[in-house]
Amino acid sequence: MERRSGTWLLLLPLAAVLGVFLLWPLGLVLWESLFVEGRFSFENYLSLFVRKLYRESLGTSLILSAGTAVLGTAVGLPLSYFIHKSRGRGKSVLLALTAVPLTLSGLVVGFAFIVLLGTSGFITIILRELIGINPLEFSAFLFTWRGLVVAYLYFLIPRMILTMTAAWSNANWSLVEAAVSLGAGPATVLRKVLFPMLAPAILAGSSLLFAVSMGAFGTAFALTGTAVKILPLVIYTHVSELSADIAKADALAIVLTVVTTAVIMAYEKFFASPSKV
Amino acid sequence: MKKYAGKVALALAAVLLLAGACLGEELYPGENALAEAAKKEKGINSYDTGPTWANWQALFDGFEKRYGIQITWNDLGSGATVVRLDKERNNPQGDTAYYFMPSGDAAREKGVTEPFKPANFDLIPAELKDPDGNWFCIHKATVVFVINKNLVKETPKGWQELLSPKYSKSVVYLDPRTAGIGYAIVIATTYAHGGDLDNLGKGIDYLAELQKSGNVRMIEKTTEFDKFVKGEIPIWITYDMNAYRARYIAGLGDAIDIVIPEEGTITAPYAISLVKGGPNPNAGKLWLNYILSSEGQGLFARGFVRPILPGFKMPEDVADKFLPDSEYARAKDVDWVKAQQVQKEAADLWGGKVLGEN
Predict the structure, then answer these.
(1) pTM here?
(2) Pick from B170, B219, B234: which is nearest to A225 by CB?
(3) Tens digit of pLDDT for each residue in B315-334?
(4) Which of A84, B176, B180, B292 could cysteine-pair with B78, CB 3.0–4.6 Å?
(5) Terminal alpha carbon distance of chain B
(6) B23 or B229, which is more confident?
């Protein structure tokens, strides 16, 4: 009994960190969101259903994040297998390169894309010289949701690759060999052996991509300004407006947190159950 | 004892005078005494004075050279500055706060400013200062077009021409809800179309039409100066000071055109305040005095930022680089205290009509 309470003590540092840096600020944000001009009220939350802007931005955020998570998973999976299969120096170079995008802040990523694909961007100028595109029309896509998809994939795909390379090396390949020796075709091996084995990692990876996308701010801030209405940018507008509305920004932040967490939990529950069978 | 008091005072005065002589001539009476008090404090936290905006870097350098006091700055944006002061009201961190003038009056309403009348306060025109000194204007800027001639063949002359299809995906300006300049553009388009502060709809209708024409490349939140210099922005609606800075300091020269729209525009004043209960009050006052001194105002002028003091003699080599006064005659002045009161309404209207957010 005493021993058990001793192990419990080891959790204290983690609990303290989570408490100070997650629960306490979240609690403050929640508390502030419940007041309108000093009165207790749910008005900040009710307005989320009334104003088109809030519904739209939540919808755009969800679609953008789900879309980029699916794309990032689809591209990241084969790449991670390729890196896993490569050997020697090539592998370590590839892994190191994969980590680079993760070290850059979102703003830097946004500006990197402007330097490459903007009106006076490197690639834009080359294309203008080669095939005579109009730089203004060509680069305009970068400042819309299309630009966001491209830029988000830049930092999402490496996350998928890193999650998956660990999974590939932990995979039990003797099971695959056993299945093949028992006469299973490639499709059956994929469906019955490989997928169930890797499902937890794919699941973890893709929900990570979704969460990162939902919360990403810097890249969108640098690229699209106000043009694309996603929740993080709408929250920013509310905080920095000349007539700022902090309580509403708080409410939106709570919605962003709750929706992201709920979607991830539902997703994991939905997909996690069959893999247990 | 008493008979020495006079002599002691005399000796003290002599010492102070000597100290004053060592520091050089005072910019205004009482400067040296204030500087002494300021040096005992821990530097200055100057809110929202980003170094590339309004030649602030030159003022930082001049101030630090004169007094040896370090300035810490941030670059929040006018609206966010007022929010920050309000959030920190129980434990203020800033000493001075700089903003688009209407935000200065908003800060006064929130009670986060300290009344202070700096050097030359009396010279500032009455409509450009709070009578008690809660805020006062220090420079002004006029809304103009800046054209990157590498990207735009024909320079537009005015607002109406911007609607032409030849400027497809070309126009960039800042969000009126987050930046003072954005709101200044709403007011400029309003006055250019015969409206006024009671009828901002005219300007917003125009901006909605511009949006619908497909000529708006993007509505920026920040960093537009660097993007313009890098060649990302064909037509930039911004302040004259940014335009001159791009031409003379960033060195773009004749590669850009600066246009005061033919239908008219407005001139916007920028204000500063002493923060109530700030950590370094004497240093804050010294900084505000310096900004309004002939030296501080001159440093604005050197960076093509128009000083607030009426009749301020511009350095000659700078004066001929400005557009002629006949061009500036089309720039109107506005009742900015009233502009503050209709701002929220204008921001909502802009969001609704231009971006379709409601």
Answers:
(1) 0.81
(2) B219
(3) 888 989 999 999 999 999 99
(4) B180
(5) 77
(6) B229
B61 C-beta neighbours (distance < 10 Å), count: 13
Q: Is the pLDDT of residue B1 over 50?
A: no
* Section A76-98 average pLDDT: 91
Residue B278 corresponds to which tokens in the numbers above?
């700030």
Q: In this structure, what DSSP letter does residue B246 have?
A: I
Tens of pLDDT, residues A121-139? 999 999 999 998 888 889 9
Residues A56/B351, Cβ–Cβ less than 8 Å: no
B186 touches chain A (CB under 8 A): no
Residue B206 has pLDDT above 90, yes or no: yes
Closest chain B CA to residue A224? B218
Token digits of residue B8: 């002691």
Tell me the Cα Rg of chain A: 23
Q: How far apart are CA B133 and CA B340, in angstroms?
A: 17
What is the tens place of the pLDDT at every residue in B62-119? Answer: 999 999 999 999 988 888 899 899 989 999 999 999 999 999 999 999 999 999 999 9
Query: Which 3 state secondary structure label does DSSP give B202?
Result: helix
CA end-to-end distance (rounded Å), chain A = 35
Q: What is the 3-state secondary structure (H, E, C) of B255-321?
A: HEEEECCCCCEEEEEEEEEEECCCCCHHHHHHHHHHHHCHHHHHHHHHCCCEECCCCCCCCHHHHCC
Q: β-strand B96-100 against B44-47: which pairing, if any?
A: parallel
Task: Tell me the β-bridge partners of B45.
Answer: B72
Q: In terms of DSSP bridges, do strands B96-100 and B216-220 run parallel, antiparallel, or are they unpaired?
A: unpaired
B341 touches chain A (CB under 8 A): no
Residue whose token pair is 């509403």: A248
Average pLDDT over residues A207-214: 94
3-state secondary structure of A187: helix
AA letter at A189: V
